Amino acid sequence: MEKVREVIAYKNHFEDFLLAQPIKVQDKIYKVIEIIETYERVPSTYLKAIIGTKGLYEARIKLGSNIWRVFCFFDKGKLVILLNGFTKKTQKTPKKEINKAITLMNSYYEDKNK
User: Fold this and answer.
1) pTM of the model
2) What's the chain's average pLDDT?
3) 23-32: long-range pairs with CB below 8 Å, 24+
């Protein structure tokens, strides 16, 4: 399938998270990333904006009854930057995970503008 956008990871946070997961989960995460790369309109089951943040999204991974989230954002529309990920154990996304993602997003732009 042809890519409509590019997905890259910022620093090592996504990779650290990915490698800590079982292979089945890694495969599922790759599938979701592939959907983000190839679908013109990504269904909200896979990618959802985080309310109250400036442009932060979560990629949503589900396997059985387990849920994982990977924060990301769009840079110039066609580039998706992956940030930190975590295993979701509560109904609400933990504030500290959102804050970490926002900090990473800000430092991405700082690095870029240097």
Assistant:
1) 0.94
2) 95
3) 24/63, 25/61, 25/63, 25/66, 25/68, 28/61, 28/62, 28/63, 29/59, 29/61, 29/68, 29/70, 29/85, 32/59, 32/60, 32/61, 32/70
